[in-house]
Specification:
single chain, mainly alpha
């Protein structure tokens, strides 16, 4: 049985942490790299006391943990559907139910372990400070998150056609709505790659929350600090931009030959990223509307949209791969950062929009996916 457990842990647990190395590096930086080592314990104790004392903050934390649990469940389901792992069905199906559930329990909770560790420390802190109610809530919540997926995994063994909730969501949407072209890519993300966009949005929200938190800790509000946080938030969307190019290459190459003006295609691209960035716009508005003017907020939103559009336009150069794209993106951010610090934000927005339009209008009709020799 130990050998079986070791093999399953390599298939699921080791594979999960390897595939999500980038996610955990960003998370580690946000949790441990944004404050100096001398203030690290007080920083995390303050975070824990914050959600132990406040119900709304606790609900947000539990929501984030629930999203991570869904990420874990989706990964296990995806592995079971991956070609080459068909042997899991007869191998695990031949085990008795108790042994099988034990293996599922070990697999799922090994992946869910980061939440168990942080939640366990929070419970200890809560009990020491007599916050028994929130501590019990955290314990019960994580027990539920650690147990309910086991039934779904076991059901998948005997009903291989069982899909995660996104399959039902996709069929429900297809029956009821006809999608306009601007929603093609967003629909693809939410139905086929929900964990990718949810992870990007979650980390982006954490970055913006950290920006406001640091400014609140310093008892000041600096629009340039907010714009720096917005630029970092945009950088966290780079994977989605690359996915957008791959999606267009695979499914929407025919649109170049439709009797639709290039300007309409350009507006469609702008609308895609405007819709994609709505959650961040809402978050910034809620936190900053009393501290700055509506014109300043509009400038922040225009800067983010201009960066997204320019970074996407760069991908219309066929030979730009991910490595080159990141170089140009970082160079652009370096230049824009100095323009922001010099209070030339509107000029930066104008330059980005002009460059985006020049690249898009000159390359869109000529673009063909590049195949490396």
């Amino acid at each position: 049985m130990r050998s079986v457990t070791a093999i399953l842990q390599k298939i699921f647990t080791t594979r999960f942490y390897i595939q999500n190395t980038g996610f955990f590096l960003v998370l580690f930086y946000l949790m441990f790299g944004v404050v100096d080592s001398g203030s690290l314990l007080n920083y995390h104790k303050g975070l824990m006391m914050g959600f132990l004392e406040g119900t709304s903050f606790l609900l947000i934390v539990l929501g984030l943990w629930a999203l991570y649990c869904l990420k874990c469940v989706g990964f296990v389901m995806k592995v079971m559907q991956t070609q080459g792992y068909e042997f899991l069905y007869p191998a695990m199906g031949s085990m008795n139910k108790n042994s099988r559930l034990r293996e599922w329990f070990l697999i799922h909770n090994a992946i869910y372990l980061p939440v168990w560790i942080y939640g366990g420390i929070a419970m200890v802190v809560g009990i020491r400070h007599h916050y028994y109610g929130p501590s019990i809530v955290i314990l019960v919540f994580n027990v539920i998150m650690g147990l309910w997926p086991l039934a779904l995994y076991d059901r998948k063994l005997f009903r291989p056609d069982t899909s995660f909730f996104t399959g039902y969501l996709q069929r429900w949407i297809n029956r009821r709505f006809t999608k306009p072209p601007v929603l093609y890519f967003l629909y693809e993300l939410f139905t086929q790659f929900p964990r990718r966009i949810l992870t990007a949005k979650l980390v982006s929200a954490l970055m913006l929350w950290l920006t406001f938190f640091l400014m609140q800790q310093g008892d000041y509000f600096d629009l340039r600090g907010l714009q720096l946080g917005v630029m970092l938030s945009v950088l966290l969307h780079l994977q989605l931009l690359t996915h957008h190019r791959a999606f267009d290459d695979t499914w929407l190459s025919f649109m170049e030959n439709l009797p639709v003006s290039t300007f309409r295609h350009y507006i469609r691209m702008a609308a895609i990223y405007l819709i994609m960035w709505i959650p961040e716009m809402v978050m910034i508005t809620v936190n900053a509307h009393t501290k700055t003017t509506a014109l300043s907020l509009l400038m922040v939103f225009c800067l983010a949209l201009s960066l997204l559009m320019f970074f996407r336009s760069l991908l219309y150069f066929p030979k730009i791969n991910n490595e080159l794209h990141v170089r140009y993106v970082l160079l652009t951010c370096f230049v824009v950062l100095f323009m922001v610090l010099g209070h030339y934000e509107w000029l930066a927005i104008l330059v980005l929009q002009v460059l985006s339009a020049i690249v898009f209008f000159s390359k869109y009709r000529q673009y063909e996916p590049y195949i490396e020799p």
